[in-house]
Design goal:
Length: about 250
Amino acid sequence: MHLLILALDYPGTGHELTCTADGNNIKKLAEASGVSDITMLQNNEANKENVLYHIQEVSARCEEGDYFVFNYSGHGANVKDKDGDEADGEDEALCLVTPEGELSWPDFLTDDDFAEALTSNVPHGVKILILCDCCHSGTIGDFKSECWDGVTAISLSGCTDNETSGDTGRGGIFTHAMLLAIEGLQKKGKDDYSVAQMYNAQLKMDDEVFDSAQDITMKWTREYDGAHHMAWPFVPTDTFVAPWHQK
C-alpha cells in the first residue's frame, strides 16, 4: 500500500476549510490498518509542482499487485475545458495552491493533467484508488480518457461534478461518512470487504448522520468492473472508533 494524502485548509485566503483534519484522520486510519508508506502534503506543500513530484516519487515505489491510493481534501472547481473532451465544456480541477499558499487558477490541477500524471507514473498492474473530498469531483479521475485503457482504477468522490461537498467544521462529510462506515463494518465483524461494500456503507452513514444534499459518487475505469472485486485496503487491525464519535 502506497498512500499520498493532500489536505488543504487555505489559511489566509478567505476560503478557509478544515481539511487538514481529514488528512490527519486518513493518516491515522492508514496507520491503524498497517500501512507504512504514507506521504502527506498540507497547505503550501500541496502546490502543483510538489504534488506532481510526489505522485512520481510514490509511484516509483509501487510494484504489480500493490495499491496506489491518492487522497485529496480541499476545494474543487470547474474550469474551462481546453481540449473539447467535456460535454458540458468544463473540466474538473483540484484547487492546489502556489508555494506561498495562494489560490491561483493556473496552479489548479485539472482532471486531464491529474489522469495523465497517474497513468504515466503508476506502474502497470498497480491498483489505483482515488478518494476526493471536494466539490465538483464526480469525474475527477477523467476515466473516459484513453490514457486509462487497461488500468485498474476506482474513484470515490464527495459529490457529482455540478455539486458541492460539505465541510463540517471538523473535516468533510465525505471523509467522516467513510470513517463511520469503516467503524460500522468492523462492528458487524467484517474484516474483508470490497470498495463497493464500503461505498454502500458510506452512503448509508451519509444519509443517517449528515442527511447531506451531496451525492457521494463512485466511478471506475472502462473494461474494469472492479468495484465489487477490488478489496477495500484500509481495515484497522484493532478496535476502530470513527473521529465523528470522538467529540
